[in-house]
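Components:
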Amino acid sequence: MTPKRKQRLVIVLAILVGVSVAVGLALFALSQNINLFYSPTQIAQGEAPRDTRIRAGGMVVEGSVLRASDSLQVRFELTDYAETVPVEFTGILPDLFREGQGIVAQGSLDNQGVFQAVEVLAKHDENYMPPEVAEALQASGKMPQPEAEVFNK
Amino acid sequence: MIPELGEYSLILALCLSALLAVVPLVGATTGNRLWMSYARPLARAQFLFLGVSMACLVQAFLSDDFSVAYVAGNSNTALPYYYKFSAVWGGHEGSLLLWVLILGGWTWAVAAKSEDLPLDIVARVLSVMGMIGVGFILFTLLTSSPFERLLPNAPAEGGDLNPLLQDFGLIVHPPMLYMGYVGFSVAFAFAIAALLSGRLDAAWARWSRPWTVVAWAFLTLGIALGSWWAYYELGWGGWWFWDPVENASFMPWLIGTALVHSLIVTEKRGVFKSWTVLLAIFAFSLSLLGTFLVRSGVLTSVHAFATDPERGYFVLALLGISIGGSLLLYALRAGHVKSESSFSLLSRETMLLINNIVLVVVCLMVLLGTVYPLLMDALGLGKISVGPPYFNSLFIPLMSVMIVFLGLGTVARWKHTRAGQLVEKLWLPALLSLVTGVAVSFLAGESFNVAVALAVMLAAWVFFSQLRDIYAKLRSKSNPVAGLRALSRSYWAMQLAHIGVAVTIVGITMVSVYSDARDLRMAPGDSIGFGPYTFVYDGVREHKGPNYVSDKAQIRVMKDGTEYTRMHPEKRFYNARGNIMTEAAIDPGFTRDLYVAMGESLGDDAWAIRVQYKPYVRWIWLGGLLMTAGGLLAATDPRYRKQARREAQRAKAQSEINAEGTTA
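Structure:
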């Protein structure tokens, strides 16, 4: 091999090694950071894993929001109109968090079957429903009518 | 009447860009100089009619013409005039019109600023831009015209602009971002023109360099503005979320940064030519991909616009045609390109190659994290989301590697550098950054923090290696001041942009590690201590704005027992849509921000309040501004114009000789 070819080989090998290390790292990081979405029905039927970071979404049940008087702890229920899941959250809820509104919460299920949320997301648009929630509602056949026409327009 | 004029002139602009796409290109292929010379007037006329079209839409907004569906959906009589103006690009249709207007603007700028370039190159470049224009004007007209009427039942009042968008940040953020996105179309057009003409030499790199660097500067500014807007307007003090839409603008930036660097190597050394062309194609393709991700509604995001599958398919088709077509052309033409020089393993070329590889790899990582959930969903494998830890755990180590090579690349020489030379030049900067990193980490927090030490070391490494390079440039000069003056403008531009990188690193590190936030319930008279500051909550009163009412809290900030400032966070209720919005109060500072936002009312005048201390957060955007300034400074280097003129004369002389040869 000429020195020039040798040098090229070194560069090509370096790139190959670099790329495979990067791809390996990426896949590892990806596998550690994927948050699966579960609907209230799936959670109630025990399909969702415990103590693992997951996302849950649905409509906030009317009249279910309970606030602690001395702290920022909130408890509410999430439904897809087939099953409901209790959720606990400590902190400030987003502006569009309202009863009857579709939300997505990020957190994990504890041993009592309560979803301990670390983050609650609601979009800044009153007609918006998170696609996951819309799909979960359609799956349970409980998509609200006729508002459904307004959703995601 | 006026909206119809707008639609009509948009159709005219479409016809003109169709002519622009065909006539000069045919001229360039057949050697017909008359046809080639149509490129510039067509580009000017296209921009004129796009401008008229935009002016009509602006007029419809300012005059509250709610018979236009788009105006009715995004404006309101109670909206102040400057938000009526920015509401023009507050929705999908208008922002698309802004997109094509800016494309027309770039096309016009190339036509106006290219008098030194050979005519056939100008004709090809403008033709390619005309093709892009056809695609996007067609997209606007067919799927999302902003001029559609709501007749005969025009509403008396508009639906209002989303309150999140009623903000200074949104007046300036989208135009800057689009200037960057669309600006990469110029680099793309130059690359395609070079492939078409088969003249892939250092000259084309020199011609496209100023354009690319300007587009890159605007994109940098646009992203920095977007981050700043998210910080103060979304209400929770976050400045980057790895949100898919943020990623959509960040991916072209990463490739654009690689492109700006590889263009330097192509221009100065005549190597990496086909790689540079490929980067130019990718930078623009990722801009298109970003447009697709944002416009098609496949994303769940705070930024995503209304969903419409038809629009998604249209952009996807545009994406397929432009990426497929340009890569096919690349495959046919780029194989014959030969390097004009060689370089050894230890040289500036290699350092810049590493810069390019890292940036491309990082971009692929971001792409994977952004598109993976979409793919899984499309394949029916479940709904997932990829969290910020994925991005952070890859982005930070990879970029750290690149920063190390940034210092090495600045002092390394072209072609070949001895290892001893690098050590001799860089041992002191390395030592200084080691000391700085450790010292800052000890002084900034209560205890030593390894992450802070490493990150500050990297920032200091950039800073000191840049200084060392200036010193090396001056050492041989007898008069240092004259030596400083003699350094070229693009050299200072590089210094400025690299210092900007260091400043941003400091900002990101400090705010990520030393931020302090507390959510708490506050009744009037309650207080909370934060380092030297004490926040006292005085209560809430009602406040009336032009199109909203709000609960406005007063919080007195005490420092060492005396009153330091008063902060007034708000909870606004926008009448038209019934939206509730958090308006944070920020006390900005060079080394720290105080940030107070209101949560919800807890009854009896008590509110949930979030108080935050954000050290060095401004440095993140300050670094972005420095990078932008660097980019703009580089583009104005007079060297480009002089050299371009010289080359054009040579090319002209050459073509005249050829012409004489054929006639004789």
